TrEMBL record:
The lineage of its organism: Bacteria, Bacillati, Actinomycetota, Actinomycetes, Mycobacteriales. It comes from Tsukamurella strandjordii. Keywords: Membrane, Transmembrane, Transmembrane helix. This is Substrate-binding domain-containing protein. The chain crosses the membrane at residues 12-38.
Length: 367
């Protein structure tokens, strides 16, 4: 009788099959390692590009005093954002400097008493950047960028509010005997310059378009503004005028201010604070132009960092602190209205070119 092989035995894999499987596994491992190393190299390159290879870079900003508090909050966000500019990590420092003082220093030699020389200057309005561009055309790098706005309004004594019912910008100079508007100039008086631009465009009948240099220098506009300034009650400055509107008197009834300036002044002053009147017609606004400076002591890296900071202010909610302070910022809500400021709808006046801005500022400034 024949015999059978036991069912418990097993037949092993051939050696050549095992060798083939091992070779495939080695190839897969080598390929995976190469992919991992390549990815790591690329990531390290990206990480290196995103680090401060050149270290920190000090970026000094001279800003109008009205901007300082809220702009410092914006700068804190920028400084902690990890922004890298030309392999530097810029750190922004905001210093408040009155615009006429900054203009004088930038037109000549920067005074160290004002703080470090800036790479970026943000005054209240184009009145100041226009004068700098005229005095030193090479000083401003590119076109200044507006970081916020605030329309000019008339801050009016509460007891005189009805006198201003239905007032239009075009009628303001002729109604000066009743309106008794003071027109301070100098630091913090951009409301006066903006009111002059608004009235100048109104009497020139621009229909909301920018007033031309020819019209701004013409006898109709300059004569109107000269007479308006000559008949205005005298005050030391805009703050003194605002304070004067809160004490019993009738020699002074109003002063032009920016909406934000009145909003900040009236905070905590209750019912006695002046109220904003929005005259009818196209209205000029303070634009808070950010001017990157191309001057001795400002490096190319600082100019690039200054541009990056301005771009940062214009993105997403970065400028929210400015809106909360009463500035008008694109994409941000204005604060709730107060007894003094309603943040009402304003018909915009197109910004004038630098020569027209200077001509109007000269016409409203007492000689």
């Amino acid at each position: 009788m024949g015999t059978h092989r036991s069912g418990t035995g097993s037949r092993g894999l051939a050696r050549w099959v095992v060798a083939a499987i091992a070779a495939v596994l080695v190839v897969i491992a080598v390929a995976a390692a190469m992919v991992w190393l390549l990815g790591r190299s690329e990531q390290e390159g990206r990480d290196a590009a995103a680090t401060c290879v050149e270290g920190e870079l000090s970026l000094k900003v001279a800003a109008a005093p009205a901007l300082v508090e809220s702009l410092r909050r914006v700068a804190e966000g920028f400084n902690s954002s990890g922004t890298v500019s030309n392999d530097y990590c810029p750190k922004v420092e905001i210093t408040g400097v009155d615009s006429p003082v900054a203009l004088s220093a930038l037109s000549g030699t920067w005074d160290a008493k004002l703080g470090p020389a800036p790479a970026l200057w943000i005054p209240e309005s184009a009145t100041w950047t226009a004068r700098l561009a005229a005095a030193k055309p090479s000083e401003v790098s590119g076109q200044p960028t507006s970081i916020a706005s605030s329309p000019v309004v008339l801050a009016v004594r509460g007891s005189a509010r009805q006198t201003f019912d239905g007032v239009r910008w075009v009628d303001v100079p002729a109604r000066q005997p009743d309106l008794r508007i003071t027109l301070p100039t100098g630091a913090g008086a951009d409301g006066t310059y903006l009111a002059a631009q608004t009235v100048g465009a109104a009497v020139a009948r621009t229909g909301g378009a920018a007033i031309t240099e020819e019209a701004a220098r013409g006898p109709l506009v300059t004569g109107t503004l000269n007479r308006w300034a000559a008949s205005a009650p005298k005050t030391a400055n805009t703050t003194a005028a605002l304070e004067g509107l809160m004490v019993p008197s009738d020699t002074l009834r109003a002063v032009p201010t920016t909406e934000q300036q009145l909003f900040a002044f009236a905070r905590g002053r209750g019912e006695t604070a002046p109220v904003a009147v929005y005259p009818a017609g196209p209205t000029a606004s303070a634009t808070y132009p950010a001017a990157v400076l191309d001057r001795e002591g400002v490096s190319a890296a600082q100019r690039r960092a200054a541009s990056d900071f301005v771009a940062y202010v214009g993105k997403a909610d970065n400028a929210k602190p400015l809106a909360e302070a009463g500035f008008r910022v694109s994409g941000q809500s204005t604060p709730a209205k107060t007894p003094s400021v309603s943040f009402g709808t304003v018909e915009p006046l197109a910004p004038a070119a630098n020569p027209a801005v200077i001509a109007i500022a000269d016409a409203i400034t007492p000689k």
